[in-house]
């Protein structure tokens, strides 16, 4: 089953600190840019929604054609955004929770400046492995 | 011969599970480390305000990380969206993890709407420090004020946080008060959320 999925981590100051195309569909050049555009446009909705609930997983908050945007907000207001076409809510929630743990481990590094780009290739490998497992 | 034998496999920190953390850390080790931190910064600056700012910045980095870690570990992934919620989170959960006990008191300021105070009879970082007379109002509690500011700022409640000594009658050492003054937008958002 081929799925399109684009995963972005956006910091508190609305700067993307990590992005990855994690779907199993073949990549097209223009599709990646469109995905990022859709995710950035959804940031406004996330901002309002984040203050109305104390849960971290905000489910599907926006749609574009047949693609759905799901968002997970951490305590420090770092947003994990996933653009996907599947309806697997539980799998997506588990995916977000596992990535959250990885993110906390990166954050605990005293030499990591919060809000800067995540450049660890090991982190990248693990996120893609989790995406294959849960999405 | 050096170098002969099994090569040690270094596992990446991302592969290790997030531990519960040590419940206790040696107080003397911390006091030693903190005194070195203060002394190092003293050699780098020319005035007291700069020294306080550096201690605060050191605390800010701790606060940002403590917020994420504690919300994940102790609060089962629930964020704080209200002012009183985040203040009681700082007053109990953060204090308990960092200093082993909840803070002595949490008060709302009487003169201004946006001021809150967390008081502590004897702040752990000040326990082994005495301030010489010529340093005036300098307070090493600026480190703790930085931690609180880091927590509040990362959670979306920007504030100015400072540490002050408040002399108490009948006690030899003054009480330490962390004064939190929230930014305008925090109060507006609180009013909007009702």
UniProtKB/TrEMBL annotation, chain A:
Record-level GO cellular component terms: cytoplasm
SUPFAM superfamilies: SNARE-like
GO-annotated biological processes: endoplasmic reticulum to Golgi vesicle-mediated transport
TM helices/strands, residue ranges: none
Protein's UniProt name: Trafficking protein particle complex subunit 2-like isoform X1
Pfam families named in the record: Sedlin_N
Gene3D superfamilies according to UniProt: 3.30.450.70
UniProtKB/TrEMBL annotation, chain B:
Keywords in alphabetical order: Endoplasmic reticulum, ER-Golgi transport, Golgi apparatus, Transport
GO terms, biological process: endoplasmic reticulum to Golgi vesicle-mediated transport
Location(s) in or outside the cell: Endoplasmic reticulum; Golgi apparatus, cis-Golgi network
UniProt cross-references to InterPro entries, sorted A to Z: NO_sig/Golgi_transp_ligand-bd, TRAPP-I_su5, TRAPP_component
GO cellular component, one term: TRAPPIII protein complex
Principal subcellular localization: endoplasmic reticulum
Domain of life (superkingdom): Eukaryota
PANTHER family associated with the record: 41-2 PROTEIN ANTIGEN-RELATED, TRAFFICKING PROTEIN PARTICLE COMPLEX SUBUNIT 5
Subunit structure: Part of the multisubunit TRAPP (transport protein particle) complex.
Recorded family membership: Belongs to the TRAPP small subunits family. BET3 subfamily.
Protein name per its UniProtKB record: Trafficking protein particle complex subunit
Organism: Theobroma cacao
